[in-house]
Write a structure and sequence with these properties.
TIM Barrel, 8-stranded parallel beta sheet, two-stranded antiparallel sheet, alpha/beta
């Protein structure tokens, strides 16, 4: 039976059920900052922390402040965010693809980094992938979008990041995705996980240095699968900041059984709590029960409209609302990754560009 959930409903149900089942250990669920921390200053109780990357490296990432999430791919053309994966590759058919235009908009909007959906729920890949025939090379437009994206980022001084989704409705290898079953019963097989490792190896060895690697729906990988995925990324791109998406929340709690290990805290569709802001210090117990302190910066992600992928009937948020999102994110000590989807032509619509530039002008006036 197909479960027609949208992403927000799926993740909200995931979080609620995990809490009821006690899937998140209390020491993790507490997830409270272990020190009062002001953005731009180190915690007075910890100079470095037990996380993989240095505080200096993480502060450098935090200093970027503002980036663009780019959701583009098969779902742009099928109209289904959680695409079934059954559409022929040729359904992907941008007629006026202009990746340079995307990144010029990133630059002109005052953003410092961009993250591209290299593969979303449909399983269709935006590069000529070696381990599947479901990719741009077999589509109606054979442009290597990943390659064009990285090249454009280099041209316009933008740091590139890659998004990769572990929920894959096309490449099952015996897995059951949340489209096929209830979310708590969704899982991936070892064969699928090996496929994902192979694909991420392609992405992280063929396109140069990557700033941020975003792994979505990490819960279906299982704890061992997440550990292998995290270790692989660190070995291939040791300076990259890794996001295993924590999902919809205000960033107070880290969902250990769903998204650990990670370098970053995803704050999806929300802003940090107004009464405490975002506190980046988390206490996490290792396998021996020893508490360790981790500095984990936060990243808000939300669309410029209300859909992740372009839809003709989606409306844009006002420049005033977007300005509020940006100012609040900054004041509460997190980066803002604003999703700006290109349309079926393969370009960011002019109305969207106008709104982004209006936002940039308002921000500069403050």
């Amino acid at each position: 039976m197909t479960n027609r959930l949208n992403r927000r409903t799926f993740l909200q149900r995931s979080a609620a059920t995990a809490a009821i089942m006690g899937a998140i250990p209390s020491v993790m669920a507490s997830g409270q900052s272990q020190a009062e921390s002001v953005p731009g200053k180190l915690s007075p109780l910890k100079k470095e922390g037990d996380q993989r990357l240095s505080i200096d490296r993480l502060k450098k990432w935090e200093s970027l402040e503002y980036g663009m999430f780019i959701h583009f791919g098969m779902s742009t053309f099928s109209g289904d965010e959680l695409d079934s994966g059954k559409s022929p590759s040729t359904v992907y058919a941008p007629s006026k693809l202009d990746v340079d235009q995307w990144i010029q908009v990133v630059r002109d909007a005052g953003m410092k980094y961009a993250i591209l959906t290299t593969k979303h729920v449909s399983g269709h890949c935006l590069w000529p992938a070696k381990h599947t025939d479901y990719h741009v090379g077999t589509s109606s437009n054979t442009t290597d979008v990943v390659g064009a994206f990285v090249k454009a980022c280099d041209k316009y001084g933008i740091l590139p990041g890659f998004y990769y989704c572990s929920w894959d409705n096309h490449h099952l290898f015996g897995s059951e995705t949340p489209s096929m079953t209830s979310w708590q019963n969704a899982y991936t097989t070892e064969e699928y996980r090996d496929f994902q490792l192979n694909q991420i190896e392609e992405l992280l060895t063929n396109y140069g240095k990557i700033e941020e690697v975003w792994v979505d729906i990490p819960g279906v990988l299982g704890f061992e699968g997440r550990q292998k995925q995290y270790a692989q990324i660190t070995s291939l791109q040791p300076d990259a900041v890794i996001m295993l998406n924590n999902g919809i929340s205000n960033g107070t709690n880290l969902k250990y059984e769903y998204s650990w290990p990670t370098d970053l805290m995803a704050i999806e569709r929300y802003l940090p709590s107004s009464d405490r802001g975002y506190k980046p210090w988390f206490t996490i117990s290792d396998k021996n029960g020893k508490n360790k302190e981790y500095y984990i910066p936060g990243e808000v992600c939300d669309p410029i409209g209300y859909e992740w992928f372009w839809k003709e009937n989606d409306s844009l948020r006002s420049a005033e609302e977007l300005l509020g999102m940006r100012l609040i994110s900054r004041a509460r000590g997190v980066n803002l990754l604003l999703d700006v989807p290109p349309d079926r032509n393969g370009q960011i619509p002019q109305a969207t560009v106008k709104q982004l530039l209006a936002l940039a002008a308002k921000y500069e006036q403050i």
